[in-house]
Amino acid sequence: MSGPVVRFAPSPTGLIHIGNARTALLNALFARKERGTFILRLDDTDRARSEERFAEAIKQDLAWLGIPPDKTEKQSARLARYETALEKLRGMNRVYACYETEEELDRKRKRQLGRGLPPVYDRAALTMSAEDRAKYESEGRKAYWRFKLDHRVVRWNDLVRGEIAIDTTSLSDPVVARADGTWLYSMSSVVDDIDMNVTHVIRGEDHITNTAAQLDMFDALGGKAPVFAHHNLLTLPGGEGLSKRFGSLSIQSLREAGQESLAIAAAAVLTGTSLAVEPVQTLDALAEKIDFKKISHGPARFDPADLDALTAKTLHGAAFASVADRLNALGVGGGEKLWLAVRGNLARLSDAKEWWAVVSAPMASQIASEDCDFCKLAETLLPAEPWGEKVWDEWLAAIKPVANRKGRELFHPLRIALTARENGPELRALLPLIGRTRASARLRGEMA
Ligand code: GLU
């Protein structure tokens, strides 16, 4: 048996944000863990709003997150399949033509709400006479199509939420094709899931009622229904939903702000579960944590302010191999030694540039006048080369007996002399990287 097939199905009408990334990651990492296939399906049937640049941006974002799809499909290339499916449903009397305008539908809904009724479509078009139809057509109206729900209780065992039962009598018959001939994903998604042998639909809980209608369509079209998992949606701390309005939470802006992709992935996947939101070192490790039963049924409250700490912690534990290429691209040398020395002090990866400059580029002295003599004394005690691992300890052992200083009074001037900074990585790790020549000159107050 081959592994599961899952899909992430955004419409390319904007940039994806961290809430969309939650859906994408849950799909991709589930496929990774179960040795399955992860499909990116672009729901681009809305021709007016779909744009190629957004499709490209989504692909780029998935690649950056470390989850490039195994396959990419787009609905705009599959229109003939939807036509065939509609034809089949028409033959079975499971779809019917409707002619109401948006305004007419809106008036109906308002009337129903006014009477305290749910705004469910009244199936007026089902009982339309041949004359009514002829009249509409002569007015130049074009039909749009609704799927006729088989009014019954639809049940499924949701991987996140357990048993779900929805009485489709309470739902409007979903529109599957618009009057202008464009398709709605209500049906096209079912056709795709059947054709692409999708085994698991992992998506937001805002789709739960769609699932009831879609399960009815899987039956009508004679397809095998996938297993469903409806995850909670990320919200802001106040409960407000994420939307494309929050441009700052788009994956693109988070990347540009220097957040680590693994930090975003950890926040996106672990928030709103019974697991701690903590950094991970690999996507495989994050995939291992995925357990649909651990996803909460309430909202997943996400505080964007937590991302900074998560990015920092991710860097503090990152292995050199996992960042080597990016350090190289930033022009940061020094190899693993430098990385291990400075990683614990980084808020962003690019901060490594500063520490690389501290150990490798000349800088002006900042030694306070009252510390000049002490630094000169310390300079005379620098161990001779070659320097081994213990050079810092050897140096201190030589300084302590002769300097009349200890604690901060001893260390702080050395830090200022060697790095021109108040704080930073341990001098024990930096000193060997700075090297004897440069350290000696800096302690004498020279630019080096
Ligand atoms: N394009 C739909 C959406 O983004 C797809 C939903 C689904 O996963 O089936 O909401």
Describe the protein in words.
This protein has 3 domains: about 1-70 and about 155-160 and about 190-315, HUPs (Rossmann fold, 3-Layer(aba) Sandwich); about 320-360, no CATH class; about 370-445, Arc Repressor Mutant, subunit A. Helices cover about 45% and strands about 10% of the residues. It contains 19 helices and 12 strands. The protein has helices at about 20-35, 50-65, 80-90, 100-115, 130-140, 185-195, 210-220, 250-255, 260-270, 285-290, 305-315, 320-330, 335-340, 350-360, 370-380, 390-400, 405-420, 425-435, 435-445; strands at about 5-10, 35-40, 70-75, 95-100, 145, 155-160, 160-165, 175, 200-205, 225-230, 235, 300. It has a 3-stranded parallel sheet. Strands 4-5-8 form a 3-stranded antiparallel sheet. Helix 2 (about 50-65) links the parallel strand 2 and strand 3. Helix 6 (about 185-195) packs across helix 7 (about 210-220), helix 9 (about 260-270) packs across helix 11 (about 305-315) and helix 15 runs antiparallel to helix 19. The structure holds glutamic acid.
For this entry, give a set of tags.
448 residues, alpha/beta, Rossmann fold, 3 domains, three-stranded antiparallel β-sheet, 19 helices
